[in-house]
Structure formats: C-alpha cells, structure tokens
Amino acid sequence: MAQIRIENVRKEFGAFTAVQSSTFTVEDGEFFMLLGPSGCGKTTTLRMMAGLELPTSGQIYIDGEEVGQRPASQRDIAFVFQMFALYPHMNVRKNMSYPLLSQGMPRAKIREKVAEIAKILKIEDLLERPVGGLSGGDRQRVALGRAIVREPKAFLMDEPLGALDAEFREHMAEELRSLHDRMGATTVYVTHDQLEAMQMGDKIVVMNHGVVEQFGVPQQIYDWPATKFVAQFIGSPPMNFLDFDGVVARGATNVMVGDANFVIPQHLTGAQGSLTLGVRPEHVQLNDAASYRGEVLGQEYLGTTQIVTIRSANGVLKARISSETPVRVGEQVGLELDARKLTIFDAGTGRALLSAANQEVLNHG
Ligand code: ATP
Fold first, then answer.
1. What's the CATH class of domain 4-223?
2. The CATH number of 238-364 is which of 2.40.50.140, 1.10.150.910, 1.10.287.1490, 3.40.50.2300?
3. Using a 6 Å cutoff on CB, does residue 40 contact ligand 1?
4. 34, 11, 8: which is closest to 23 by C-alpha?
5. N or C terminus of the chain: which is more exposed, having fewer CB within 10 Å?
6. HSE, side-chain direction, 13 A CA sphere, residue 356
7. Which residue's CA is the nearest one to ligand 1's atom 25?
8. 45 alpha carbon to ligand 1 midpoint, in Å?
C-alpha cells in the first residue's frame, strides 16, 4: 500500500515537452485515473511513477520518500502493461510463480501464494492449463495475478482493457474495480475513455497537451469542470457552450446572455468581455414559457431519453429530455437552463469563473 505524490514533474524528450509541470497526490488505497486524449502525456506520467522514465525536473514521492531518479527495480511498484505479456509456453501456475521464483521465495511458499491469489481471481481451475489456449479474459486475469503475487506497494496500469471488445471490457472493468475493493491496493490507471474513468475512479486527473487540467472526484469534475477542455472531454454529449459578450459581477445572481437573463450559481468570480456559458444537456429543458428561444435542428431517440439539437442566438446546443416529449424539427422552442448547474468560462483562457475556494477544491480534490 502506498501514497504517490507527483510534484512539479516535467518531462522533455529533446525539444518536445511531453509533461509540462504536474502536481497531484494519489492517496493510499485509491483507484486513481489518468485521463486524457491520445498524446496528452498520460503514459509518460505513469512511466515516471514506475521509474521506467526519469523526470527532467520535479519530484516523485512514494510514501513520503523521494524516488524520482531511482530506477524501476528500486520502487516496488507493479506495472501492468496491456495484459497480454505472458510467457506463452508456460502454464498459468508457472506464469504466476515466475516473479516469486526470481525473488528466491521457497517453492512451498510460492505454491501457497499462487493458490491464494488464484482464488481471489477465480482462476484456480486454470492453474495447470497452458496460457496459449486461454480466452482473452482469462489471460487478463492471469496477467493480473502475476502482478499481484509480488504484493507490490502499488499497481500501475496502462489502458489494460484497451484491446477488448466493448461488452467484455465493461465486464473486466467491473472485475478490476471489485478486485481493487477487496485488496485495497493503490492503483493508477491510464485511460482515454471518460466513461471508464468516471465509472471506475475514486479520483481523476484530466490531462491535455502535457498539462493537468483538473484533479478531483468524478462528480466534481463532471459538475464543475475547471476548463472548457474538461467540460467537453467529459460527458456524452459534452457540455453545451453559449458564447456572449458581457459582465459577470463577483457573486452575481444573474447574467445577461444577449437579451436573455439567466440565474446563475453565486460561487462564480467576476469577469467581463468574451465569455462562455456552459450547461450540460440534461440541464436544458424545453419550456414554452421560457423567453430564451431556439429552432429545433434535429432529434436522436435513445429509448427513455432523446437528444434534441437546437440553434439559439448564442450557439447550437443539445438538450437531453424525456423521449415522450413531442418535438418537431423546424419548430421554435423555449429553453430553460437549470440555474444551479450553469458554469461560465472566460472564452480567452478557457478557465471557469470559479471562486478561489472552489478552484482550490477542484484542483486538489
Ligand atoms: P497515448 O494514449 O496515445 O499513449 P498518452 O497520453 O499516453 O497517449 P504519451 O505516450 O505519454 O501520451 O506521449 C506524450 C507525448 O510524448 C506524445 O506526443 C509522444 O509522441 C511523446 N513521447 C512519448 N515518449 C517519447 C519518447 N521516448 N521520445 C519522444 N517522444 C515521446
């Protein structure tokens, strides 16, 4: 079990900076997600935690001890690659025993340890089978088992479910999470899939172009994105943006967007100029009495809900509403935005106008 702290960590590859200056803490026992689009620096960050890359500058602490310049072999952390890295000519037992054999553990103790982990992973009946003939899911369990038997301080996983089809992926995600809940080992997990991050993570770091955009629990990140990037990357469909020129006073209760007056949450800081109002699709309702209006451009039936696309004076937005609400393409509708859930961003910097206290909570979980 371990706490991992990354402090002002930067990684350059020649003239290219893959990780700008990251600071965050993975608490002991957490299931922690590193989330972001391809190339944002997730894997590089994970490899620096493991000691497979050394940071150009900054510190990495494991349980308070600075390990940033130490190689992987001195960190007692298990790196679980995409889980197909097994020895194909060996059976399951030998694959799982191998790390312990190379540590010099007595054979009787190895047998006991492998049996214990095989039971947790529900692969006891596979122990004598060659790994070559196993299904993808069983191979993943064996690969996990091989990492777990060593009882490392933490597990680092790089898109471990990336190669699986959607249905099986969901099943394995649930299994990994419940395995973590039983074992309680600190786990850092890289993914580009926002749904996977929201479903599995205790905390999430969202990265973009080598920068940590936000760090917090999934609900904070969903409800109060710190930047427009996070607001768009998380959620499907993503947050809607309405652009306007205006003024928001510190602690204001209302904002004028064009001719419309919207009630807003009071914890926003002040700003003026080019601003963007952000609202999630489920916080947009159609209401004939509402003065803010738009034209329905399209609708997408999703069973219990539908996504309605509407063009307003300040931009196109999507509303997630009951599929029982009748909507016609081309009609004019009134739009009501849930006042408690609106966010405003500075259009230039892309940062949310959140009070310092709120920003602190968002950035430090
Ligand atoms: P992906 O999901 O595609 O792996 P990622 O967020 O994990 O993306 P990284 O693998 O950390 O991203 O890569 C970040 C950037 O650093 C990329 O532009 C990549 O090309 C670059 N990079 C990574 N490793 C090296 C290296 N050894 N030498 C040069 N550039 C590298």
1. alpha beta
2. 2.40.50.140
3. yes
4. 8
5. N
6. 0
7. 13
8. 10
